[in-house]
Structure formats: C-alpha cells, structure tokens
Specification:
Number of domains: 1
Number of helices: 4
CATH topology: Aminopeptidase
Radius of gyration: 15 Å
CATH architecture: 3-Layer(aba) Sandwich
Number of strands: 7
Helix content: 25-40%
Strand content: 35-45%
C-alpha cells in the first residue's frame, strides 16, 4: 500500500466521493447533496489519498460543542490498511482542537469491524436506534466519545 495522506477534501473531489459512496453504501448521498453539505460551514470533509487518488473520506458536522461523524468510507480494495483509523483520528483531532466535548456516531449493528475501530478510540455504545438503516433494514448502535 502506498503512503496515505489525509487532508481537507477539495471541492473538485466531490464527484469522486459520490462515486465512492455509490460503490460502498446502499443508500448513498447524491452528488447534489454532497455539494450542498460541502458548502455548509458546520460540515467538514477530509480525504484519504494514495498517490493523489481518493481512496477514502470522512464527513462530520459540529454544532456548538458536539460533533457527529456521519460517514467513514474507504474504497473496498484499500480496506485493512488503517485508512479508516486515520480518518477517525483526523476527526477526533480536529474536534478536540475546536473545543468539542463529545463525538457521536451511528453504526450498523452488524458492522463489527467498524464497532471495534470506534471502541479502540474509546467510543462507548449508548443506545440503539431501531430500524435506522435501510437496504437492508437494520438497527444502529449509537456511540459516544467524551473528552
């Protein structure tokens, strides 16, 4: 695996993010939605790149002293190389620097790999959102990390 670099997403990469979303998620954001969110100053997008090519990204938004991680997405051919961990670490560092007290996220109940990743950062399960996800319908585990 090549060296991975994490930095803020560039507007011209939204199309690549949209393609990645369609490849990974059963209910992806549309490119139009991603463009709108990108312009919202509460939302933050960071990209993981290998040799200049987008291989993953994370999106999260901050309101007052809370951040919610919305998506962590890594190209299926690049998984298992620590990219997800790098992206989550980036969101945590960014949030701490900006006075956030708590990070929140939702994760599919069946996504054991992601749950283990979040727990490795200290996220703890705090609840369940019944039938939160679609295609297939599945509960979400709600997780928090407090500083």
């Amino acid at each position: 695996m090549q060296k991975i670099e994490i930095s803020p997403l560039k507007k011209e990469e939204i199309s690549a993010v949209s393609e990645l979303e369609r490849a990974v998620f059963s209910v992806p954001f549309t490119e139009k939605s991603l463009n709108e969110l990108y312009l919202n100053t509460s939302w933050h997008f960071f990209a993981a790149r290998a040799n200049g090519s987008l291989v993953g990204y994370i999106s999260f938004y901050t309101i007052l002293d809370e951040t919610e991680i919305v998506n962590v997405c890594v190209n299926s051919s690049c998984r298992g190389n620590g990219i997800g961990k790098m992206l989550v670490s980036c969101a945590i560092e960014y949030s701490k620097k900006n006075g956030v007290q708590r990070l929140m996220l939702e994760v599919r109940k069946s996504n054991a790999i992601a749950i283990k990743l979040y727990e490795s950062f200290g996220f703890i399960p705090v609840g369940v959102s019944k039938n939160h996800y679609k295609l297939p319908t599945e509960d979400a585990i709600l997780m928090n990390l407090e500083f």
